[in-house]
Amino acid sequence: MDAMSEPQPSPSVLTGLKRGLRHRCPNCGDGRLYRRYLKVSPVCEACGHELGLYPADDGPAYFTIFIVGHIIIAPMLFFPWIWEASPWLVVPVTLIPLTALTLLTLPRVKGAVIGTLWAIKIRKAEDAPS
Ligand SMILES: [Zn+2]
């Protein structure tokens, strides 16, 4: 009997979210979730949980666009200097920090999505191509 077939207590979505936001394995909270930027480790180094089972797909990109676009960019448009200053000033002053923010947010959101998928037990089908 392997670890996946043993009865487990129902995991909390909040636990999965918190562990994913910290780039940690949703199952144990100790092992690293990524081996490189956005590249999920196939197996947790701490508990051996198969991290490659969770089909995050485009969800992290969508939620990152939602967070950065709706919570940061939309309110920024209410500041008059955005419309009055030269585009040669506005574009670098806004795009460089937004790009950095997006690149910092994306792995955290991907971790949160994977943590949520772990909590609600959504996994790739065994016979699905990866
Ligand atoms: Zn683990």
TrEMBL record:
It comes from Caulobacter vibrioides (strain NA1000 / CB15N). Keywords: Membrane, Metal-binding, Transmembrane, Transmembrane helix, Zinc, Zinc-finger. This is Zinc-finger protein. The lineage of its organism: Bacteria, Pseudomonadati, Pseudomonadota, Alphaproteobacteria, Caulobacterales. The chain crosses the membrane at residues 61-82, 88-106. It comes from the Bacteria. The keyword Metal-binding applies. The keyword Zinc applies. One of its GO terms (molecular function) is zinc ion binding.
